[in-house]
Amino acid sequence: MRQKRSPEDYLWTVWLLSARTVTPQHYTLTDQLIFAFEEATLRLESAAEALLLKENYSPECEKDLAALGTSIEKFKDSIGSTIFMEGTKSKELMADLYSSTPAAASAKVELGNLTVGQKFKNEPGTTAVAELSGNLIFIDPQKIGKNLQQNMGLFFHEKLHNLTGLTDDVIQDKLGLTVDSNNSKNISDKLVKDCINK
Q1: What is the pTM of this model?
Q2: Cα dist. 140→15, 28, 170 in Å?
Q3: Is residue 114, in this structure, part of any structural domain at all?
Q4: Domains in the chain, number
Q5: In this structure, is residue 179 part of a structural domain?
Q6: Does 13 fall in a domain?
Q7: Residues 91/117, Cβ–Cβ less than 8 Å
Q8: CA–CA separation, 45 vs 84, rounded Å?
């Protein structure tokens, strides 16, 4: 059973590059993958911390979250339970990300043995995939940039999947956005506009 952490201690302990005893030219491919994941995780944790510490959210943001059946308070309370996972190599079944939802049975039929790693490979534009009604967020570390605002929008977006159990197309519809299951960036963009920039 995954242990929920409080907002005060949710930042993860990571290995710092400066603590390594080998020089960069001696890093193995495994080392490089670990470093990339750790760096991406730190960037998303910084985004999560910024959202947690933000005191005032706009009425537009509150309206967005209400449309999804949740609230700022519930969102903040959920941040501490987040578990980031390296998605590109993951053998977790995509269908298992639906296991806590009413769509669990149909997801098994539709997705079969497709893994999270295969989804990232098959859909190169994918940056993150979240467990519905759960705590896991799978990421492609190479696609997590340095822009704090964009990372806040991405984290907010993926955390809403964890919190509400809703898929991209349902969220898009409830927020009055163009419904496109192959491109959900408009969700992150709206959250940046309504919840971060205001």
Answers
A1: 0.84
A2: 19, 19, 23
A3: yes
A4: 1
A5: yes
A6: no
A7: yes
A8: 9
